[in-house]
């Protein structure tokens, strides 16, 4: 068996707009997905993902790719649930030139699904890394990030940025603009996360933003404005100016909200954090439900969130210096 782990991430600024070439800044966090892979000689794929739950059903996918798992859910839901793992294995077959190879894949993850913390990227990065190593091939980090990006691009119907997968593969803080991906000197930021227990489907949310952008010029302008917020944020980060960074996070949340990707509970948590004295707060990742991030060096925001109706979990994010980890 070969085992790799990869971290989730938090966007400081710039999700969604990054899909259209605007810059973004995000950092890896110490919530990880671990993927164990064992080669099979019969060419079949068997996935055991006990944490996989989506829209009210839980599935232990323990079938084979050709037979499919024995559960009573629609094929489209199942595709949504399994797409990332299937896509990762397709990349492994492609990059190793081993079209026929099968695997037993076991996934265990600390990262809630569809909550904006990059569970999909972490699963894909760890799966590609473990499965290629199982075949005796160790990918350079850039190639690993590229292959993981192609998987997200495919599952999200041709609408994905390189941000989540690059960040998960390399760890630390990163800046992504189009295909320019680079590491940043990791600032030690006091990030607090609030989680409403919900989820959003990244592919669908990205598609919703795209149709607004196609329909309204002011939606395209909103996306461009997020890019401006990020460029200002980079200057604030370089100066270590948390107050300014917080203000920009607030602005970014408003713009994401205008693009239709916030929700009542995300807004409630954002306001609870601001009322508690956070420098700023915003939804993170694709939105629709899931997590917000706030900047607060004091314990106030975490405490306030833990008493906020609709907030299921509040915790301080520990930044992850390393990306993919090769465990066995
Ligand atoms: N533990 C897991 N086991 C198997 N598949 C997982 C696991 N965690 C995530 N996934 C896959 O990732 C999908 C969720 O990805 P999605 O991009 O919608 O959300 P996210 O990555 O958590 O949030 P965001 O993209 O906003 O950061 C799940 O439907 C599933 O296909
Ligand atoms: C919404 C989005 O910007 C981030 C999802 O974590 C989509 C992407 O970058 O692929
Ligand atoms: Mg994702």
Automatic annotation (TrEMBL):
Gene: mvk
PANTHER family the record matches: MEVALONATE KINASE
Cellular localisation: Cytoplasm
Keywords: ATP-binding, Cytoplasm, Isoprene biosynthesis, Kinase, Lipid biosynthesis, Lipid metabolism, Magnesium, Nucleotide-binding, Transferase
Organism for this UniProt entry: Natrinema pallidum
Residue intervals of the GHMP kinase C-terminal domain: 235-301
Record's protein name: Mevalonate kinase
Active site: 164
Residue stretches making up the GHMP kinase N-terminal domain: 84-172
Function per UniProt: Catalyzes the phosphorylation of (R)-mevalonate (MVA) to (R)-mevalonate 5-phosphate (MVAP). Functions in the mevalonate (MVA) pathway leading to isopentenyl diphosphate (IPP), a key precursor for the biosynthesis of isoprenoid compounds such as archaeal membrane lipids.
Broad class of enzyme this protein falls into: transferase
Any Gene Ontology CC annotation: cytosol
Pfam families listed in its UniProt record: GHMP_kinases_C, GHMP_kinases_N
Catalysed reaction, written as an equation: (R)-mevalonate + ATP = (R)-5-phosphomevalonate + ADP + H(+)
EC number(s) from the headed UniProt entry: 2.7.1.36
UniProt-annotated binding residues for ATP: 112-122
One GO BP annotation of this record: galactose metabolic process
């Amino acid at each position: 068996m070969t085992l790799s782990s990869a971290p989730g991430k938090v966007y400081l600024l710039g999700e969604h707009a990054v899909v259209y070439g605007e810059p973004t800044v995000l950092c890896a966090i110490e919530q990880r997905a671990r993927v164990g892979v064992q080669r099979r000689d019969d060419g079949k794929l068997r996935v055991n993902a006990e944490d996989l739950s989506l829209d009210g059903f839980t599935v232990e996918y323990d079938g084979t790719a050709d037979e499919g798992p024995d559960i009573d859910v629609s094929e489209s839901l199942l595709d949504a649930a399994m797409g990332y793992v299937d896509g990762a294995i397709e990349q492994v077959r492609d990059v190793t030139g081993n079209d026929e190879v099968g695997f037993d894949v076991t996934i265990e993850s600390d990262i809630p699904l569809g909550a904006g913390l990059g569970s999909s990227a972490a699963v894909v990065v760890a799966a590609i890394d473990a499965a290629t190593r199982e075949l005796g091939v160790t990918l350079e980090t850039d190639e690993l990030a590229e292959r993981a990006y192609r998987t997200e691009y495919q599952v999200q119907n041709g609408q994905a940025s390189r941000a989540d997968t690059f960040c998960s593969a390399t760890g630390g803080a990163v800046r992504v603009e189009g295909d320019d991906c680079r590491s940043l000197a990791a600032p030690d930021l006091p990030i607090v996360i609030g989680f409403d227990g919900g989820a959003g489907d990244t592919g669908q949310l990205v598609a919703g933003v795209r149709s607004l952008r196609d329909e309204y010029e002011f939606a395209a302008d909103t996306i461009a404005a997020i890019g401006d917020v990020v460029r200002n944020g980079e200057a604030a980060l370089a100066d270590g100016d948390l107050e300014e960074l917080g203000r920009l996070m607030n602005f970014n949340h408003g713009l994401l909200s205008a693009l239709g990707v916030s929700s009542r509970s995300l807004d409630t948590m954002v306001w609870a954090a601001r009322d508690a004295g956070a420098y700023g707060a915003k939804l993170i990742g694709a939105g629709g439900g899931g997590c917000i991030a706030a900047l607060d060096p004091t314990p106030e925001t975490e405490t306030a969130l833990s008493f906020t109706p609709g907030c299921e979990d509040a915790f301080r994010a520990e930044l992850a210096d390393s990306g993919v980890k090769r465990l066995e």
